[in-house]
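Example record

One chain of 234 residues, shown exactly as stored in the release files.
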Amino acid sequence: MRGFGPALGRSPRAFSRPGGSAARAAGFTLLEVLLATSLLAAALALGFATLRAAGATAQRGEAIAERNERIRAVSDFLRRRIGGAQGIVFELDPATGASKRFEGDANGMRFVADLPDYLGRGGPHLHALRIGRGDAGGLDLLVDFRMVQAGRIVPGSAARPPEPLAEGLRQVRFAYRGLAGSGEFGAWEAAWEDPATLPLQVRVQIADARGAWPDLVVAVPVAGSFATLGDVQP
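Predicted structure tokens for this chain:
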């Protein structure tokens, strides 16, 4: 009978000897193991870095969306409240007896507008906007509402305690303007000088830690109805 013959040039002992072809085919060298481990570690590091970057991007996107929604809500509230100013007398100047319909400077303003039902009992209320110092060291834009009757603020009629409309701000600044002698808009002023009249426009500039908000310019539709004799009618 023909017996098993080894391949040409190969010794039968090569298949059983340590380090022979069979041993090499059955395992990996130390260099191969180290290389595979290094590649796996690099792939894991790349994967973790990608996950961290994706998480940071998602967080930044959420922060931007939250800030944009905050800007939209505050701007919409201010536009509705300031634009709804009615020119109702809320106080008399104790020195001159002149009527006060609008009072404003760079740090706040007071005027009368209808209070929405969801904020209180409705009807004409004095709206007081002012800047306060927040607990965290930033600035807060505070709003306060009080009922007005017969040209006077009703004592104890606060619809609710002063509360922050926006918190943690870096800057809040108000400005006002009416008509110049030429019949065109005058320059922006840091204070409204004639409390018996209303400005034609009010500008609100706000900035937070991320930067400045878009300037809010609100027209006051009834302002022309309360112009003094020296003013140019729109």
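Notes: The mean pLDDT is 82.
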